[in-house]
């Protein structure tokens, strides 16, 4: 809980200009400053009524990180002009909840106004803690605003949920994020301090990398701006530096630790082993395996690399390669040296002489690149389960076709996000068993095309 139990009407005062993290300083102060989420303010919607001072209702704000849940709660409190209390479900317990409920009842009898209670991460409150709100929401002592990243159908008591309206927030679009970034660069009171400029390409990269999270975008901009600032002694006046794409990449960089930072020979030999197996040379494969083991390399490291090779370079051309590689790993783990080394040798020869395909490896890589590029695209509603009335009301599972009831046991419905409906990631080769997979996929394509239906996914 933050501050006293009952603060003056409205949210806690904002931090002084220039203090605190950039994301907190740039938090919108009015509904007019909000970027994105315009779908929430359609005429007659709960938030539109609150904004216009016409009706204050209990809400669950459900959305991904950085989509504006806390900002909306603060703006609601400011618009309502009632006592405001903020809880963190991570830090508060049942004792604090009951104390606030008691004081809210007293305040309502005294002033006639409810208390607006904002619970951040309400899904972290257990059932007993949520039950403590129930009667006070019902009798009007409090107006409850809960924020959650989790599905409220599963994380909020059904009795409590029935007394609240669920407001679904979406990730911010790259265009919305771009507007926020430009605002932070231009705002001399609350924005980046000291001010910097930024290349258009850098802002585009930041907006794309944010994945719809305004907080992440602003935090990254703050780091990139610090790296871009002109060094001490540079001429005064104007911006203190310029953010480039390289600054953004550095701000986004993740650390990757190598297995052995000093062992060049280690990496040379494992590369030689891997490429020998890929080129179907069992003689060289055995030689480089023997070299590594004789040099004292950890045999379990080699075994892990053989498992990786089975997935990356053999794949579905020989589906038995992966089970055999895993068996070799387990055999060495159980037998140790020298008996277990023979299992590694047998595996290496098998992998070298197996048919090869990297179609799964390439397809998975392409899918990961697409995820990095396009972010958190939602699945089509048709393939989502709808175990609760709320989810059914939102259109989850509407029109779903059960594959086992369809001709050929394949359903003509979209499985990919709308933006990727025509994308294909796995293209099987004509090697080994993958030739059969290719035949099946082609037959399915013909079957779906013959039905003349859209959205084969």
Strand-helix topology:
Layout: H1 22-25, H2 46-51, E1 59-62, H3 69-80, E2 84-88, H4 94-111, E3 115-120, H5 127-139, E4 142-148, H6 152-155, H7 158-161, E5 165-168, H8 174-186, E6 197-198, H9 200-209, H10 214-228, E7 242-243, H11 245-252, H12 264-278, H13 282-294, H14 299-314, H15 321-335, H16 339-353, H17 359-374, H18 389-393, H19 434-451
Parallel strand pairs: 1-4, 1-5, 2-3, 3-4, 6-7
Helix pairs in contact: 4-5, 8-9, 8-10, 9-11, 10-11, 12-13, 12-14, 13-16, 14-15, 14-16, 15-16
- Please tell me what the overall shape is: globular
Distance between the termini: 47 Å
Q: What proportion strand?
A: 5-15%
E-strand count: 7
User: What is the average per-residue confidence, as pLDDT, rounded to a whole number?
Assistant: 88
Low-confidence regions: 1-10, 255-262, 453-457
Oligomeric status: single chain
- Helix tally? 19
The major beta sheet can be summarized as: 5 strands, parallel
Give me the strand/helix succession: HHEHEHEHEHHEHEHHEHHHHHHHHH
Which secondary-structure class do the elements indicate? alpha/beta
- The Rg value, from CA coordinates, equals 29 Å
Strand order of the largest sheet: 2-3-4-1-5
Assign a percent range to the helix content: 40-55%
